[in-house]
TrEMBL record, chain A:
Record-annotated FAD-binding PCMH-type domain positions: 1-170
Classification via Gene3D superfamilies: 3.30.465.10, CO dehydrogenase flavoprotein, C-terminal domain (3.30.390.50), Uridine Diphospho-n-acetylenolpyruvylglucosamine Reductase, domain 2 (3.30.43.10)
UniProt-recorded name of the protein: Xanthine dehydrogenase family protein subunit M
Pfam families linked to this entry: FAD_binding_5
Cited PANTHER family: XANTHINE DEHYDROGENASE SUBUNIT C-RELATED
InterPro entries: CO_DH_flav_C, CO_DH_flav_C_dom_sf, Diverse_Substr_Oxidored, FAD-bd_PCMH, FAD-bd_PCMH-like_sf, FAD-bd_PCMH_sub1, FAD-bd_PCMH_sub2, Mopterin_DH_FAD-bd
Species the sequence originates in: Chelatococcus albus
Record key words, sorted: FAD, Flavoprotein, Oxidoreductase
Source species taxonomy: Bacteria, Pseudomonadati, Pseudomonadota, Alphaproteobacteria, Hyphomicrobiales
SUPFAM superfamilies in alphabetical order: CO dehydrogenase flavoprotein C-terminal domain-like, FAD-binding/transporter-associated domain-like
Automatic annotation (TrEMBL), chain B:
Statement: the UniProt record of this protein carries the keyword Iron-sulfur: yes
2Fe-2S ferredoxin-type domain sequence ranges: 2-78
PROSITE patterns the UniProt entry points to: 2FE2S_FER_2
Transmembrane stretches, start-end: none
Protein name as catalogued: (2Fe-2S)-binding protein
Source organism per UniProt: Chelatococcus albus
Keyword Iron-sulfur carried by entry: yes
One Pfam assignment: Fer2_2
Residue ranges of coiled coil: none
Length: 268, 165
């Protein structure tokens, strides 16, 4: 790891000011992607702004028909939160499947979303549930937030503060993890809210998380695993690597989607 | 250089460190607490697990400066008055180790499992929860037994430290 200057703001305002002032800065949340990347010298920021001292960025609350989660909330806290377990159990279950227990004790929802790893779990939940990403400057619908491989709509000087998840009527997340890394080879989040159904896929897309329109239409007609029978996801545009080729990933999307719908309807 | 202060195994410590110093380097190289090991250095193997404000974390993937003001417990901090912690004792009784390299991390993780999941742990739960700790001697079978026995032995001991909110 190359040397850097370290800053530890006590408030969001201080963090925003630092971000505007110091050159070549990276925000440090849980650090479980940034620090390994810096060790490999794939990243070498001149300045690190550590968000771990900002109490106002962590916490979970129910606000009407939504659950609002602070950006610095750890995966373990989302997984164990009675509020999340009651309101959106699929989201608590997703958080409980990220990495391993020690990673979940450090990793944060804001860090995961800002990084937009194509195999991360949270982006699928954000898209399927129709979340809103709240920053120090604005509110961004999840659909507009994830713009490509490790790319987001975040601008210079922008910090994620909270993520707001509207409550679904039914939802489930099914993941086929890479057995070594626990990242998703394929993860499918299915959510139904009113007449709206969304199917979001992570781990498979070469450009990151994406929706499967054909599945959504079929599930709108009837929300049952049977509705998905015969729907093939094209393997074009899917990741191929030593762990799984594109055809296998395409196949897994179908399997995981059917299991997710079965789980969401209580027929798993 | 920057100054970092924290409580390690109940003792207040303070030192000037380079900002890039990892918690594990701080523990091993500054405090000479070499019971915490560096295995993979990529947050996979769990040999470096310590408790940070009551929660198991991988100290190879945490900056020392992030822990300013925090309470850290390492494997050296478990034994009290010359008596091993019940989880350490259980690893010895059940021969839950072969070469011993992964053992400090296993024990720190095991105590965190008891904190989160309670004292009555079935084999499946233990194996799932040990996902972040790797033993390369093949020895999981006895490690799982040791964790189950240690969890039982911790009943009636001091109340488990609650994670910092």
């Amino acid at each position: 790891m190359y040397a850097f200057d370290y800053h530890r703001p006590k408030s969001l305002r201080q963090a925003v000011n630092l971000l505007a002032k110091v050159e070549d800065a990276k925000l440090l949340a849980g650090g479980h992607t940034l620090l390994p990347t810096m060790k490999q010298r794939l990243a070498a920021p001149a300045n690190i702004i550590d968000l771990n001292g900002i109490a106002e960025l962590a916490g979970i609350e129910r606000k009407g028909r939504a659950v609002v989660i602070g950006a610095m909330t750890r995966h373990a806290d989302v997984a164990e939160s009675p509020i999340v377990q009651e309101a959106i159990p699929a989201l608590a279950e997703l958080a409980d499947q990220i990495g391993d227990p020690q990673v979940r004790n450090r990793g944060t929802i804001g860090g995961s979303i800002a990084n937009n790893d194509p195999a991360a779990d949270y982006p699928a939940a954000c898209i399927a549930l129709g979340a809103t990403i709240i920053t120090n400057k604005r509110k961004v619908p999840a659909e507009e937030f994830f713009t490509g491989l490790f790319e987001t709509a975040l601008e210079e000087g922008e910090i994620i503060t909270r993520v707001s998840f509207p409550l679904p009527s039914k939802a489930a997340y099914m993941k086929f993890p890479n057995p070594a890394s626990r990242y998703a080879l394929v993860g499918v989040f299915v959510a139904k809210r009113g007449a709206e159904v969304r199917v979001a896929v992570t781990g498979a897309g070469a450009d990151g998380v994406f929706r499967v329109g054909a599945m959504e239409e079929a599930l709108k007609a009837r929300f049952s695993p049977k509705s998905l029978e015969g729907i093939k996801v094209p393997s074009k545009g899917l990741n191929s690597d030593i762990h799984a080729d594109a055809d296998y990933r395409a196949h897994l999307i179908g399997v995981m989607a059917r299991r997710a719908v079965a789980n969401a309807t209580g027929k798993a | 250089m920057a100054t970092v202060s924290m409580t390690v195994n109940g003792k207040h410590v303070s030192a000037d460190v380079e900002p890039r110093t990892l918690l594990v380097q701080f523990l091993r190289e500054h405090l000479r607490l070499t019971g915490t090991h560096v295995g993979c250095d990529t947050s996979q193997c769990g040999a470096c697990v310590v408790h940070l404000d009551g929660r198991a974390v991988k100290s190879c993937t945490t900056l020392a400066l992030t822990c300013d003001g925090a309470e850290v417990v390492t494997i050296e901090g478990l034994a009290k008055d010359g008596r091993l912690h019940p989880m350490q004792e259980a690893f010895r009784d059940n021969h839950g180790l072969q070469c011993g390299f992964c053992t400090p991390g296993m024990i720190m993780s095991a105590i965190d499992i008891v904190r989160r999941k309670g004292h009555d742990l079935d084999e499946h739960t233990i194996r799932e929860e040990l996902e972040g700790n790797i033993c390369r001697c093949t020895g999981y079978h006895n490690i799982v037994r040791a964790v189950a026995a240690g969890a039982q032995a911790m009943k009636g001991g001091e109340p488990l430290k609650k994670a910092a909110e």
